[in-house]
UniProtKB/TrEMBL annotation:
PANTHER family: TRANSCRIPTION ELONGATION FACTOR GREA. The lineage of its organism: Bacteria, Bacillati, Actinomycetota, Actinomycetes, Micrococcales. Gene3D superfamilies: Transcription elongation factor, GreA/GreB, N-terminal domain. GO terms for biological process: DNA-templated transcription elongation; regulation of DNA-templated transcription elongation. Belongs to the GreA/GreB family. This is Transcription elongation factor GreA. Transmembrane segments: none annotated. It comes from Litorihabitans aurantiacus. Residues 6-75 form the Transcription elongation factor GreA/GreB N-terminal domain. Residues 38-60, 106-148 are annotated as: Disordered. InterPro entries: TF_GreA/GreB_CS, Tscrpt_elong_fac_GreA/B_fam, Tscrpt_elong_fac_GreA/B_N, Tscrpt_elong_fac_GreA/B_N_sf. Residues 124-135 have a biased composition (Basic residues).
Length: 148
């Protein structure tokens, strides 16, 4: 079974909008660019054609990534802050005598944040999961039911 990705409703909506654009108008725009470049003649030396095909490949990869991420997403409300480190939280930790603030969870939740993001599968992040802190995390992870 695939890993669950915890998302806020805002992150879920943002990613869903990106997927909708890529599978609708985005895909149409790239197809039109490929057709326009194809009509220019020899494809071997047609930089516009090759650039459009590369862009198409990247877009299709992102579509697959977003589809799987949203399929396995757990979306919910912000729970009570109980001081336990869980995915989706902004955490401040003492690392080598220095305070380090980071988002513990998926990069997709981070959106446009300037914070470093550490995902639960990372070794150091796994050691932090479930750990209590004297300082309470700033943002708890979302909980409740799946949203589609």
């Amino acid at each position: 079974m695939p890993d669950t990705t915890w998302l806020t409703q805002e992150a879920y909506d943002r990613l869903k909008a990106e997927l909708d654009h890529l599978t609708g108008p985005g895909r149409t725009e790239i197809t039109e660019r490929i057709e326009q470049a194809r009509s220019e003649g020899d494809l071997k030396e047609n930089g516009g054609y090759h650039a459009a095909r590369e862009e198409q490949g990247k877009a299709e990869g992102r579509i697959r990534q977003l589809t799987e991420l949203l399929r396995t997403a757990e979306v919910g409300e912000v729970p009570e802050d109980d001081g336990v480190v869980e995915p989706g939280m902004v955490v401040t930790a003492d690392v080598g005598g220095e305070d380090m603030t980071f988002l513990f969870g998926s990069r997709e939740v981070g959106g446009d944040t300037d914070l470093d993001v550490y995902s639960p599968p990372r070794c150091s992040a796994r050691r932090s999961t479930g750990r209590r802190s004297a300082r309470r995390p700033a943002t708890p992870r979302p909980r409740t039911s799946r949203s589609r």
